[in-house]
Design brief:
Layout: E1 3-8, H1 13-23, E2 29-35, H2 40-50, E3 54-57, H3 60-72, E4 78-81, H4 83-91, E5 97-100, H5 108-116, E6 120-123, H6 126-143, E7 147-149, H7 152-160, E8 173-180, H8 190-193, H9 198-202, H10 211-219, H11 221-234, E9 241-245, E10 251-257, E11 262-266, H12 272-280, H13 294-297, H14 311-322, H15 326-342, H16 350-360, H17 370-392
Parallel strand pairs: 1-2, 1-5, 2-3, 3-4, 5-6, 6-7, 8-9
Antiparallel strand pairs: 8-10, 10-11
The chain binds NADPH dihydro-nicotinamide-adenine-dinucleotide phosphate (NDP) and magnesium ion.
Residues 9-15, 36-39, 58, 101-103, 106, 124-127, 151, 207, 209-210, 212-213, 271 line the site of NADPH dihydro-nicotinamide-adenine-dinucleotide phosphate.
Length: 393
């Protein structure tokens, strides 16, 4: 029986890799729905290739443009628009699996809807979990859904964890070791980073990703978000999560055991591996990724992150200590600051300044509901936008 799949964020980097893996296994997967935002031409092409029942965009005018392209190609995919349509394609009773690959808080509601309706959820949209971790994991427990991490580090840890991890002694796991590539500015100090441009920040040495996560990788905020993501996914305190910089990005993360053993998952830095792992789980299937050539690789390097040069990582550690809704504030402020940097409104090193400002200006409360999460998110975005405007003057 083939799996019916919805790909949220199909036009992005993860979405494109997902459709590439799926195309290699037509007997296993049928595409139910695809979503995009601005790239309607790419979405039209994807609909023509994969023939989903639905295609969803947010904006009504873009929906009209998409409809016109599909009609001209005799493609019968029905175009829907708006956030409710995203929720509908994530929770439709015909859907088995949802790839959650919208970037940022924009993916929260649809990702949560997929979890609540008991779909097998492949989670790339780490921001959703960072914002609403408790609600999210409660919904996972309540619906009994299978949540599989796509983020390469978390997918690696998932692959290395022992079956007995849920036992009282965590199956002997003593800590998780998250790999970090170090991004394009590894070894740089803050004055060197002050004049960097968006193209420099987005030119990741190892991974080809969307703009937002590329900037997050350059500031190391991505690693901060990933610490919080790991806390929720693996129910482990931040004190048992280490970060090690590993520039080759071949060891995707590791699990340390009390007896001194360390298990690692290795592979070429290509997101099609974790995507194929999660799509096929608990089986395995080909991903299109070539074998790792150890001899050509010849060495693997590891070093500590330099937090003084990457203050976003320090801010994220502070957030793990503050708890409550501090992660919502950090995530929202970071999304606004990264966009302002990409729009040339603030400098690269001001991203951390702006996030720190928002955290310092907030008092934290425990969010009780999705409405609380969205309220804090909205308030932090407004505060941060105001701060960006002040800095621009
Ligand atoms: P991209 O920017 O490449 O793609 C984002 C997707 O979300 C696109 O389909 C985009 O549509 C859509 N989108 C953007 N804004 C909205 C919105 N407001 N409403 C609805 N849809 C929207 O990002 P990535 O694929 O790189 O990343 C996606 C997620 O996966 C992120 O959370 C990221 O952290 C995570 N991730 C990514 C990795 C990677 O290698 N790329 C690795 C690990 C995690 P459009 O393009 O049509 O405008
Ligand atoms: Mg990652």
């Amino acid at each position: 029986m083939s799996q019916m799949i919805t790909v949220l964020g199909a036009t992005g980097s993860i979405g494109v890799s997902t459709l590439d893996v799926i195309a290699g296994h037509p007997e296993r997967f049928k595409v139910f729905a695809l979503s995009g935002n601005r790239q309607f031409q790419r979405l039209a092409q994807q609909c023509i290739t994969h023939r989903p029942r639905y295609a969803v965009v947010i904006d009504a005018q873009i929906a009209d443009q998409l409809r016109a392209l599909l009609e001209a190609s005799n493609c019968l995919t029905q175009v829907l628009c708006g956030e409710q349509a995203l929720i509908d394609i994530a929770s439709d009773s015909e859907v088995d699996t949802v790839m959650a690959a919208i970037v940022g808080g924009a993916g929260l509601r649809s990702t949560l809807a997929a979890v609540q309706s008991g779909k097998k959820v492949l989670l790339a949209n780490k921001e959703a979990l960072v914002m609403a971790g408790a609600l999210f994991m409660d919904a996972v427990a309540h619906s009994g859904t299978t949540l599989l991490p796509i983020d390469s580090e978390h997918n690696a840890i998932f692959q290395c964890l022992p079956q007995a991890y849920s036992n009282a002694d965590r199956g002997g796991v003593s800590k998780l070791i998250l790999s970090a590539s170090g991004g394009p500015f590894r070894g740089w100090d803050l004055p060197q980073m002050t004049p960097v441009t968006p193209p420099q920040a987005c030119a990741h040495p190892k991974w080809d990703m969307g703009a937002k996560i590329s900037v997050d990788s350059a500031t190391l905020m991505n690693k901060g978000l990933e610490i919080i993501e790991a806390q929720w996914l693996f129910k482990i305190p931040a004190s048992q999560i280490d970060v090690v910089v590993h520039p080759q990005s071949v060891v995707h993360s590791m699990v340390q055991f009390v007896d001194g053993s360390v298990l690692a998952q290795l592979g070429n830095p290509d997101m099609r591996t974790p995507i194929a792992h999660a799509l096929a789980w608990p089986e395995r299937m080909s991903s299109g990724v070539g074998d790792l050539d150890f001899v050509a690789l010849s060495r693997l390097d590891f070093e500590d992150p330099v937090i003084d040069n990457f203050p976003c990582l320090g801010l994220a550690y502070g957030v793990t200590e503050a708890g409550k809704d501090a992660a919502i504030v950090m995530n929202a402020a970071n999304e606004v600051a990264v966009q302002a940097f990409l729009d040339l409104r603030i400098g690269f090193t001001q991203i951390a300044d702006v996030v720190e400002y928002a955290l310092n200006a907030s008092c934290f409360n425990e969010p009780q509901s999705l409405a609380d999460v969205e309220h804090t998110d909205k308030r932090a975005r407004a505060m941060t936008s105001h701060r960006v405007t002040q800095l621009e003057r």
